[in-house]
Every structure is written in C-alpha cells, then in structure tokens.
Amino acid sequence: MFELGFIVLDYEWVELRQLTYFDAVVRHGGFTRAAEALRVAQPAVSAQIRRLEAELDVQLLRRTTRRVELTDAGELVLARARRMLDERDALHGDLAQAAGALRGRVRLGAIQAVGPFDLGGALAAFHARYPDVELRLRSGPGGQLVGDLDADRIDLAIGPLPDTLPERISRLPLFTDELVLVTAPTHRLAGLGSVPLTALRDEPFACLPADSGLRRILDQACAAAGFAPRVPYESTSVQQIRELVSHGLGVALLARSVATAPGRPVTTHSVSPTPIDRPIGLLHLRNRPLAPAAAHCRVFLLAWPRPGDSVGPAL
C-alpha cells in the first residue's frame, strides 16, 4: 500500500491536503471560493492553512477584507507545493495506468485562433475516452503561453512556432494557418482577391497588442514592404478586431480561420506577392517530463484529424 498523505518539506512533515488547500486558495483568490471548489466548509480551509503556516513557521498569505496575497515565503512554498502535487498526480496516473485506467489532470493553453484544428472536438473525444482525467483549458497569446509553461501553470500549449521560440520548448507542428488581410466589404480594395501590403501603407490597422506574436508578424511584414503600420485600434480579442474592420474603422491581418468565421461580413485578401503562413504546434517544456495523462493527451492531439484526413486518431 502506498502512503501518499505526507511529504517532507524543509525537514517538516506536511500533509498533502494542506498543500492542496493552499494551492486552491491561491488559484481561486480566496478562502470562500476555494472551499466551494473543494466542496468543503470554509472554516476547514482556514484551519488547514493555519496549520500549514504553523508547521512551517512562516506566514504564507496576507489576508485582507477583499482578497488574499502571497508573501515572499508563500511564493516559494507555492512553487514547491505545486511540483509536489503534480508528482502526486503523476504517481496516481502511473498506478491507474498500470491498473488499466488513466487518471490525472491535463492543463492546456491555446491561442484564440486554432485554425482548422477542431480543439473542442478533440478535447471532447479525449474526455470520452479517458473520463477520469480532469481537463483544464486557458486561452492567451503565444508569448503568454510560453510564460505559463515556464511557470508550470500549464502542461501543454497550442501556439505559434516562430524562429525565436526558446530551445527549452519542445515543439511539434499541428497545422498551418494562412494570415490574410481583412477589409470591410465597402473598402476601396474589396474587389481584389490579393493585395500587396504597400497598398495599405496609409490605412489604420486593428491588431492585437504590441507584445503579441501577430503584431510582430504585422510589423515585420510591413517593414519589409517599406513602412511602419499605424495601429490606432488594439484589442486582445481577434473577434473584436474582426468586428472593428467590418464597421470600416480599419484593416487587419488575421488568421484565415478567424476572417472566414461566422459574424459581420468582411472581405479577405491573400497577401501578395507571397502569402503569409503561420505554423501552429503543440508545445511543452523539454526538461519537465509529462505526467501520464498529459503525455496521452499530447499523443491524442497530434493524431487528431485535420480537414482532409479520412480517419480519426488510432489510439
């Protein structure tokens, strides 16, 4: 029989339950919401945190009337605690796999535009095959997803594969999405199938913020065309960017999958003379082994069919 109830942390015996409650308080931003997520009484959560602080002889959280904040010591303990909780989940997964069932947790991050890849369908199929695996999904720009991998907030990411991607990130291609110019149907260039970027030199652009991968691609492409784009409209939502263009407020460079999605009408144009393709891949840290559930999910997503494939994942 395996004893998973205690761990050694800096020469102290600490219950994994205490670390679980501590992690939940931080994730959910307070004791009440953590108790709701854990399905326990709020006083029980408070008591476990007090015991953890007493056993470690440090203050982990600063409590205010509205929120809780991590102390410096809390930051250190949280990072160690999450690694230990991940190891616990991995061990449970190994044991469950040996017994014929897969359990654990998969934390996935993804950019907003996942192109021809049916992420919802893939996750639904994975959940149907492995119902005991807990799936979590968060959305964000490519740079944020790399940061989330480094901070151990996610196990896998679906994001762009730029040349500047750090070597510590393992990457495998999933699909390629063409980036197209998008204008309003009433725009002066609306009747053209392809448009050179030089024709938009004096146009206002709508785009993601300056630290996004899409914005870097726009800046680099325009620089190659001999000008710097004027971007008066910034949004963190590609759907909102599409809406702004539809109303005639500007033009945009967007993934074709976003430009052709249901919504207000826009006109799409390939970039001439050379279309802009953006490869998208599945990412994870090379130096952090994936737990069994995440490893299975990685293989499953890589095998998931794209448009034009005739068969599903043979897993």
UniProtKB/TrEMBL annotation:
Belongs to the LysR transcriptional regulatory family. PROSITE patterns: HTH_LYSR (PS50931). SUPFAM superfamilies: Periplasmic binding protein-like II, Winged helix' DNA-binding domain. Residues 14-71 form the HTH lysR-type domain. It comes from the Bacteria. The keyword Transcription applies. This is LysR substrate-binding domain-containing protein. It holds the Pfam family LysR_substrate. Keywords: DNA-binding, Transcription, Transcription regulation.
